[in-house]
Amino acid sequence: MSEQPSIPLLPTTTLLSRAQQQQQQQHQQPTDFPAVIRVQNLATTLLTASHDAWNRPNRLQPCLLSCSISFKHPFSSASSTDTLAGGDTIHYGILSSTIRDTVETNFGPSSRHSTTAEGGSGTTTQTVLAKIWQDLTTTSYNGTPSQVKKPGLLSPSLERIGLLSVTVTLPRASLLGEGVSFTASAMYNGAGEMEARAMEMNINRLRVPTLVGLNENEREARQMLVVSVGVDGVAVEGDKYFVVERAVVKALEESSFETLEALGAHLMDKVEEVFVNGRDYTVHVKMEKPIAVPTAECPVVEMRRVVKDYYR
C-alpha cells in the first residue's frame, strides 16, 4: 500500500493527544470525548493471512479484533428516544458483524482464497487491518480513497467521529509471549477527513529467563523477566514481529547486565538493528521483574527511544 505524505504518521501517544486537543478547542473547555463505542476481542480465525510463531505464512491461527470509536458529541438522540434511529451512534452489533465478516470472507478458513492457503509468502497482518479499515470508512488506513464503491459502515458518520482505532491481535503468533498486535488509529476533522494517523506493533509479555541484577544471588542464576516490545510509527509493510521477537529473546538469553536500565537500552539497540522502517519510529520496551521484590507484584522499568530511520 502506498504512502500518502499529506496524512502525517504520528506516534500513537501524539495522535491521541492531538485528537484530545482538537476536541477541547472545539468545545472551548477541557473535555474528553463525550461518547465512545467499543468492540473488544471479537474472536475469529485466520488462514490466508499473517504469519505464525515460526514465521510460517497461511497457517490456521486464532485472531482477536477490536474497534474503538470516539464521538465528538454525546448520544443525544439515542439517549433521549431510546432508539438508534437518530444516527448519532453506531449499532455495535452491526459493527461487530461487519468487522468479523470482513476477516472471515477474505482471510478465514472458508474465504475465497482458502484453497491456495498452503505455500506462498502470505498476506500480512497489516493487509487484514487495511481491509477492515476500508470496509468501515471506504479509505485505507493511510487515507487513500478505496476503489470500492460501496460506502463503508462508518462513512456517513465520519464527521461525528473524532478518533477511530482498530486492532488485530494474534494471541498465538509469539513463541514465548502472549501474542502480537497491530493497531491503526486516525483522527478526523469536522468534514470527516482524516487529519493524522498512527500505526503500532506490539509483542506482548515475552517470558524469558534472564541473568540480570545487582545482588550477589542474582548473579548466580537466571530469573524470569516479562518483556513487552512496541514499535510505534510502522510504515514498512510486512509481518516483522518474528525477527523482532527473535532478536529480543536472543539478547535476553545472552544478558549479563546488572540493571534493567542498561538491559533496556541494549534491547532497543537490537530492535533498531533488525527493524528497518524507512522513516523515524519510536521503540518502546517494558520490563517486569516479578520475583525481585517479594512484597510487590513486580518492579517495572519502561523506556522509549525515537529511532532516526529515515535515511537507512
From TrEMBL:
<dbReference type="InterPro" id="IPR043133">
    <property type="entry name" value="GTP-CH-I_C/QueF"/>
</dbReference>
<feature type="domain" description="Dihydroneopterin aldolase/epimerase">
    <location>
        <begin position="201"/>
        <end position="305"/>
    </location>
</feature>
<dbReference type="InterPro" id="IPR006157">
    <property type="entry name" value="FolB_dom"/>
</dbReference>
<dbReference type="GO" id="GO:0004150">
    <property type="term" value="F:dihydroneopterin aldolase activity"/>
</dbReference>
<dbReference type="Pfam" id="PF02152">
    <property type="entry name" value="FolB"/>
</dbReference>
<keyword id="KW-0289">Folate biosynthesis</keyword>
<protein>
    <recommendedName>
        <fullName>Dihydroneopterin aldolase/epimerase domain-containing protein</fullName>
    </recommendedName>
</protein>
<dbReference type="GO" id="GO:0046656">
    <property type="term" value="P:folic acid biosynthetic process"/>
</dbReference>
